[in-house]
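Hi support team,

I submitted a single chain yesterday and got back a structure, but I'm not sure I'm reading the token output correctly. Could someone confirm the output below corresponds to the sequence I sent? I've pasted both exactly as they appear in my results page.

Thanks,
R.
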Amino acid sequence: MQRRLTKKAREYLNKSDEERIRCCKEDVWIGYNAAVTLFDILEDKFNDPKQLRHEGLLIYGDPHNGKTAILRKFYDRHKATLDKVDENGDTVYEIPILYLEAPNSPNESKLYSYILDQLCVPHKGTEKVLEKARLAEHYLSKLNTKMILIDEIHSALTGNLTKQRAFVNDLKLLSNKLSLTIILAGTREAHSALNISGETSSRFPSIELPRWNNDKKFRSFVATYETCLPLKEASNLVTNTEIMSALYYASEGLIGRTVNLLKKAAVKAIRSGREKIILEDIEYMPTLT
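Hi R., thanks for writing in. Yes, this is the structure output for that exact sequence:
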């Protein structure tokens, strides 16, 4: 048995194989160094006082490298609650933060529709952009929204350069009018597109979420993740150089791939009856023969 398991993993040890497999497949949050640093940056921006010009942020990097997980975790920390009470004793409903995926083109109408959808504001998709913008601004202000997280922003920064600039300009105007902070996340293509329009260094300074190196930080992450897996035997992954090398090269240094490989390997370990991960378990898909 592993010497160190999380409370949840330990509680699952005596459950059925299928229950433990479901546990292995669940998402687990691990606060590794880059994620903690990004959280601190986002928290600082979230707590900014109202000002004329809020500086946004672009988080960019390779696909499957943890950007979405970080945004969603931050959103979960600050999402709407019903526990704020004003001086008259009335319950006030606020939506301090929004999370949405960017439209698949630089389409301002879709942008405002997505915002209104997240605010649960009824509207017609065929309404004029100006009317959607007016509605969005009204409810964002009324609900005291402080920050908007827009994921997959590279999807909206494609095609016609003029439309791209108009789309980014709408984001800036929204931020200026309502004194809110806009955080963007996307691939390197998003970074390049914003550089072309001159927005990266001025309005959306960028920070790269890099791939892992095969080093102490990577081993530390894997060791921590192993404690979340309800296996009855210790795999001791970080002490096995072959497994660690296979895991690193199969994941290509991407945290999303690393996690998926570990999930699949843990499931194989349970189904095989071995109860620990071995070298042969580190593969994305089985070979069909």
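A quick pointer for reading it: The first strand starts at residue 57 and ends at 60. Let us know if anything else looks off.

Best,
Support desk
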